[in-house]
Amino acid sequence: MTRLARGRAVRSPVRSRRLRRPAAALGLLALLAAGCAKNAPMDTLDPEGPNARTIDNLINPVFIVAAVIFVLVEGMVLVFTLRYRHRDDAPEPVQVHGNTKLEVGWTLVPALILVAVAIPTIATIFKLAQKPKDAINVTVTARQFWWEYNYPDLGVVTANELHMPTGRKLELTLQGADVIHSFWVPKLTGKTDVVPGRQNHMNISADKPGIYLGQCTEFCGLSHANMRLKAIVHTPADFDAWVASQRQGPSTPAPGSPAAAGAELFTSKGCGGCHTVEGVSRGRVGPNLTHFASRTSFAGSMFEMNAENIAEWLRDPPGVKPGSKMPDLNLSADETTKLVAYLQSLR
Ligand code: CUA
After folding, report:
1. Does residue 201 have a pLDDT over 70?
2. 43 C-alpha vs ligand 1 centroid, how far in Å?
3. Of 13, 90, 154, 254, which one has the greatest count of Cβ atoms within 10 A?
């Protein structure tokens, strides 16, 4: 018994060392397989907008150049380490110092390759930075942990879901309200940082209608991962209809309805101090709720829009979204139900 146990104790570290390589290989394979997902809504290598395609057209040739260099260099490292490795019986190799031709060669060739890569790269940067004509202006304000979109020429303010028509670019002015965030819709365009105290610009457009997922890509606090967004692309006619509906005032709940009771709670609980509902309140800390229920998601696009999710959110916002500025209002179940009814009436 004792010997068996001892034997096992001695063998196990060896075995675990032997397992290390297959485990690492398996881990790598799993990573590789994860990169093959068919349904990858944030795949930057599958562009669906002009900007993303411009970037993709740069990535592909640069990647090929980098891959060829990688294989050549790593291959040569392998050949040299195997072929010229130290052997006890081998004679001392010839010692050389300096070879002007070689040194000029391995300085010039990489420099030329870098120049060849730099030319299309700089051209792409300038192309992407061009301010489009006839663009729709949108001011994007990033906050912990959600996005505000203000269409100053259209008189529309909304949150988290950026609406846009096909066939026209949006010129985004990005501004930060607290810390650094970064705006990215991978299938439509590259990412741009949102920095407090300055304005950055980018434009965005899509080939066809659909919903394109995005994400804040600069670590900005506890709920950075929950700072998502959607770009919702319409046909031009549908976009105009969306704008028209957003320009209307909020619907007023029928007297005596749960929604009407919720509207009273909205005022008595001080929700309006942080949230705007046109004609009701003017708070600017949290999202404009005038047409809250017309959105498909809320709280930084973290939750799909439905009654259960709104109720869960209202019960304890910082509990379900760490770091959220929305406080726990200690609502009773009855109050929660009424507020949900009111919020759902804001279409
Ligand atoms: Cu905002 Cu990360």
Report:
1. yes
2. 19
3. 154
Rounded to the nearest whole angstrom, what is the distance from the C-alpha of residue 271 to the centroid of ligand 1?
24
Query: Average model confidence (pLDDT) for the chain?
Result: 92
pLDDT of 3 higher than 50? no
| Cα 194 to averaged position of ligand 1 atoms, centre (Å) | 9
Residue bearing the CA closest to ligand 1, atom 1: 181
**Closest ligand 1 atom to Cα of 224:** 2
Dist CA 60 CA 250 (whole Å):
48
Ligand 1 is surrounded, with C-beta below 6 A, by 142, 145, 181, 216, 218-220, 224, 227
Tell me, what amino acid is at 273? G
71 CA → ligand 1 middle, Å? 37
Q: Are strands 170-176 and 136-143 parallel, antiparallel or unpaired?
A: parallel
Residue 325 has pLDDT above 60, yes or no: yes
Residue 334 has pLDDT above 50, yes or no: yes
Query: What is the pLDDT averaged over residues 251-256?
Result: 92
